Protein: Fe-S cluster assembly protein SufD
Amino acid sequence: MTTPTTTTASSAQSGAAPGEQRNALGQNAHAHGRDPFVPVQTRSERPSSTNPADFADVTGREAEWKYSPVAKLHDLISGELAPANERIDDPGVEGVTISRVSRDDARIGTAGIPEDKASANAFASFGEALVIEVSGEDDKVALIDRSGFGNTPAAAHTIVDIKPHAQALLVLRHTGPAALAENVEFLVGEGARVTVVSLQEWEDGARHLSSHFAAIERDAYLKHVVVSLGGDIVRLNSSAHLNAPGADGELFGLYFADAGQHLEQQVFMDHNAPKTRSRVNYKGALQGEGARSVWIGDVLIRANADGTDSYEQNRNLVLSDGARADSVPNLEIETGNIEGAGHASATGRFDDEHLFYLMSRGIAEAEARRMVAHGFLNEIVQEIGNDELAERLNAIIEQELYQSTGRLLGAS
Structure:
């Protein structure tokens, strides 16, 4: 059965074998006899291809683009992209190695195939792929800084190869200017237990379109955390494919949109085997004129995914007039033999009663606003499970809130 949804976004990794391409109508390359004018109805039918020419020109009316400021992104979506010349800082952690590989590396494209024109453009345009290999059953923490992208439109491809039974906390931090379209693949080997944090601390004006694909194998666990704070336009779409019994995926997200900033995430959790589990929890705060966030969450429980346990939710806190949050949860269930599945979404304004209560006890309005927003977002920070990183993120969030609230109220 399928629950009613408000969006017909879909996905393709799903009905096709790894590396198999679908055309812009969602058909496998060998399919015949389908009416070419039948629109995509489900997430699993969404077209995929590594060739940007297989996707129609983006107008902004498409389901996957209708919330995005496409007029500001055309050079990344369909323009010429140079291979990214990023700077990578090796964390010097045993069990974490960094290298470059050519485009013919067998791992490229195994976790997922692009499902939109920008992702395909990045796939067709990158030079060498960055490879981060994680191995060893001992706990380890690795912070990898990515910077130096510059303002020239560029393409990148990253493979995070997590070996069987590996354990680690991996942080990918993005700083500086950027006009970047990229794909990131996570290959999570059998029995591995890994947390990955993608931290967007871009400079003002940066534009970042990123598609993350995770393939999670038997009895493996991936916690994937997206933290988007900097940049002008950041669109980071994450998909996790639970491909074997016992696979467990958790997708978390934290975002704070300031005046004029657009932060977007389209999330896909694909249950493609029995006895799999997933949780999705994204929380965002918005403050300032033109602040915008978009969250679309798709969960697909396939006919072969008996015993699935899944839940997704999104919460948004609007702190001022002029800000807008779009939230669309979708759930498709193709088997009735599941442990449980559900979704929830809520967007609310700052509670004036809470503000009045704090101010009545001598707390200034700006500080009261910061306290409420910080408390709201802290749940996701704590999910990372590392005190040092949590302290650093809380300091960054506090600084963002301090600057934003000061601009809103005309005082710090």
Remarks:
- The chain has five helices and 19 strands.
- The first helix runs from residue 74 to 77.
